[in-house]
Design goal:
The protein is mostly helical. The chain has helices at 3-32, 48-65, 69-88, 95-98, 101-116, 123-128.
């Protein structure tokens, strides 16, 4: 594996870890109240918002760790698409106007991870001993 491919694989892991951890924080904030927010949400168990928060918590943790990355990223990408179209798009066409830029960014980064996998520093690589070819 050449030097460029090694760094691409490592940077893929960094991207996965950062975006997974960012999503994880949304889940912990909604479900556990950490970090604290100015206007806490009271989510009814089983509601759509609660299910979304569970996806953010569990999916964010899985993506951060690189565990079943492709599956978790697929679910989280879909959740972010739903969040965008249900909660942001009705506020206008442009994401910068409807405040949907984070949902769009998460959606497409997670969609990328569906195909790219977890990278060098992932539990997938450790557990499944799978090294994708970096051509």
């Amino acid at each position: 594996m050449n030097s460029r491919a090694i760094w691409e694989d490592r940077c893929l892991s960094v991207l996965r870890i950062v975006f997974g951890f960012l999503l994880l924080q949304h889940g912990t904030q909604k479900l556990l109240g950490m970090p604290p927010q100015e206007h806490p949400m009271a989510l009814a168990v089983g509601s759509q918002m609660w299910i979304g928060a569970v996806i953010e918590l569990v999916g964010g943790a899985m993506i951060t760790l690189g565990l079943l990355t492709r599956f978790a990223a697929f679910v989280c990408s879909g959740q972010m698409a739903v969040a965008y179209f249900q909660f942001h798009a009705p506020g206008g066409f442009w994401p910068v106007v409807n405040h949907g830029e984070p949902a769009v960014a998460y959606c497409f980064v997670f969609l990328f991870l569906v195909f790219a996998g977890g990278g060098a520093w992932s539990l997938d690589r450790l557990v499944f001993k799978h090294r994708p070819s970096m051509a």
